[in-house]
Amino acid sequence: MAVASVLCDEERRKVSDLISLSARIIDEGLADELTNRATQELSEVAPGVAVVESFGHCVAFRTDRGLVVFDTSNPAAGRRVVQALRGWSTEPVHTIVYTHGHLDHVGGSIAFVEDAHERGFPRPTFVANAAIRERFARYRLTDGWNRAINRRQFRSRRNVGMVGDQASPRMHFLPDDVSPPDIVFDQTLAMSVGNLAFELHHARGETDDHLWAWVPERRAVVCGDFLIWNFPNAGNPQKVQRYPGEWATALRQMAALEPELLLPAHGLPIGGRERIARVLGDVASALEQLVDEVVAMMNAGEPLDSILHSVAVPDEVLQKPYLRPMYDEPEFVIRNIWRLYGGWWDGNPARLKPPADGELATEVADLAGGAATLAERAQDAARRGRLRLACQLVEWARQASSEDPEIQRVAAAIYEARVSGETSLMARAIFSAAKEPSGSAPTT
Question: What is the CATH number of the domain that holds 200?
Answer without folding.
Answer: 3.60.15.30
